[in-house]
Amino acid sequence: MHMQVPEALNSIDRIIVDAILAGRITAGTRLGEQSLATLFAVSRTIAREALIRLEARGIVQVSPRRGWFVIKPSFEEAQEAFQARQAIEMGILMAVQHPGPEVVGKLRAHIIRERAAIASGDLEARSFLLGDFHVCLVEALGNRVLADILRDLTARTVLISALYQSNHDATVSCDEHEVITDALAVGDLKRAADLMVSHIGNVEAGLTRAKDDDPLTNLRHALKLSSRQE
Amino acid sequence: MHMQVPEALNSIDRIIVDAILAGRITAGTRLGEQSLATLFAVSRTIAREALIRLEARGIVQVSPRRGWFVIKPSFEEAQEAFQARQAIEMGILMAVQHPGPEVVGKLRAHIIRERAAIASGDLEARSFLLGDFHVCLVEALGNRVLADILRDLTARTVLISALYQSNHDATVSCDEHEVITDALAVGDLKRAADLMVSHIGNVEAGLTRAKDDDPLTNLRHALKLSSRQE
DNA sequence: TGCATCAGGCTTCCATACAAGACTGGCTAG
DNA sequence: CTAGCCAGTCTTGTATGGAAGCCTGATGCA
């Protein structure tokens, strides 16, 4: 056993989630215990524990004795995830009292990074930052509990967007982030909440029901089978 | 190895969470790997995996090489948990369109069980049902994602209530559940959301900052030390 | 008495071995 | 040629042993 510091240990989780947020890992990807163990230079035990944690967070699923896979949400689950985000983000915006200038400052800085990623064509950074905006917002508002919840939920919706081919334009998303921040800056929480709901609704509306990476979609639909199995 | 069916396997998690919701397990309780393994007639591996899942859900914490303990939230974390519940439950109530009569029916049935538990003096059932109302509400509204999130959050707030000696009366809580249900029944979502926010606020307001199972509270406060360490 | 040291026991931590189900591909019988 | 079987391989599932850190209490010394 060589002395290479694992570099990972408890952060295997984080690296995987970050990869999902960046779109480098998509729904249905296999995450084998042995593969991860080799990759991170740890034993299978550690890799398995990371997968168990991710399973508890609703990011991966295990198919008994077949393997671990990144979740592949059904259209209904996708809708629930978006609804959950709408509810949470609207709720926090309506509940908070005073945004504070440093919150607005952080968000503006974030939006600048979003624009930079979009301009430079860095798709991974773009995906990550567009999702992370919402996490940052909630975190900046002072609630780490909700921020953690939202991070996992965001990972799910990123997976969904790739699965159902969201065609919502990144620039539009970024613009919407900006007007939300503007509303926060002038203390109009109600307006910020409304804008947030419609923003998330817009992203959701950009989804198309057909996922054409599944060659059986047409047949399945014709036979009226649900896509329940892996 | 005897043939006793484990009875537990993946449900060790559920049994522990249920015990927390019922108030049979309180904040700071030690949950040893070996103890759980013996109790559920499984190996340490299984018990450990259950604890890892619960850790990912924010229910327990591990102190390295010392042991696993049910979380003991600080007052600030407690506030965040209550704020999170307010945001989520208000958000879902404002987002839903039409409650539907079967939803109201389920909630009314739940409230009847609450009253029965209160009347019979069954403290465990009372604690469980009062918390479970909120989970049932969200689940009945059709969002399992949020329901799962809320269950864990409810477990946290139950722990908090015991830790900070909530003196909010069970009967009052139950009454509040009823008026919320009434508002839902007539389709007044706005009113239901407002009632929910104030209901959770009432429970939170019932907390007292002093946790007197900690004999150092007074000294700590006098020295202006945070209660950060375990 | 007061204090430092250290051994022993207790806990989690982690690697590993083996069990057992799931899938694949080839072989064989008809 | 096809259908069924079956061995081989790959995967996760589970138990277990030993490593290593933490805590306690005893012991010895000043």
Helix content of chain A: 55-70%
Radius of gyration of chain A: 19 Å
Order of helices and strands of chain A: HHHEEHHHHHHH
Q: Quickly name the level 1 CATH class of the largest domain in chain A.
A: Mainly Alpha
**How many separate helices of chain A?**
10
Number of domains of chain A: 2
Low-confidence stretches of chain A: 1-8, 226-230
Quaternary structure annotation:
homodimer
The description of the largest β-sheet of chain A is: 2 strands, antiparallel
CATH fold-level assignment of the largest domain in chain A: Four Helix Bundle (Hemerythrin (Met), subunit A)
The CATH superfamily name of the largest domain in chain A is GntR ligand-binding domain-like
Largest two-chain interface: A-B, 31 and 31 residues
Query: Outline of chain A, from the CA principal axes?
Result: globular
What is the spatial order of strands in the main beta sheet of chain A? 1-2
What does this molecule look like?
- The structure is a homodimer of 230-residue chains.
- Chain A is mainly alpha-helical and 230 residues long.
- Chain A folds into 2 domains: 9-70, Arc Repressor Mutant, subunit A (Orthogonal Bundle), CATH 1.10.10; 75-205, Up-down Bundle (Four Helix Bundle (Hemerythrin (Met), subunit A)).
- Helix content of chain A is 65%, strand content 3%.
- Chain A has helices at 12-21, 33-40, 44-56, 75-95, 101-120, 123-140, 144-163, 170-185, 189-205, 217-223; strands at residues 60-63, 67-70.
- Chain A has a two-stranded antiparallel sheet.
- In chain A, α5 packs antiparallel against α6 (123-140) and α6 packs antiparallel against α7.
- The first copy, chain A, binds a DNA duplex (30 and 30 nucleotides) through residues 1, 32-34, 42-46, 48-49, 62-68.
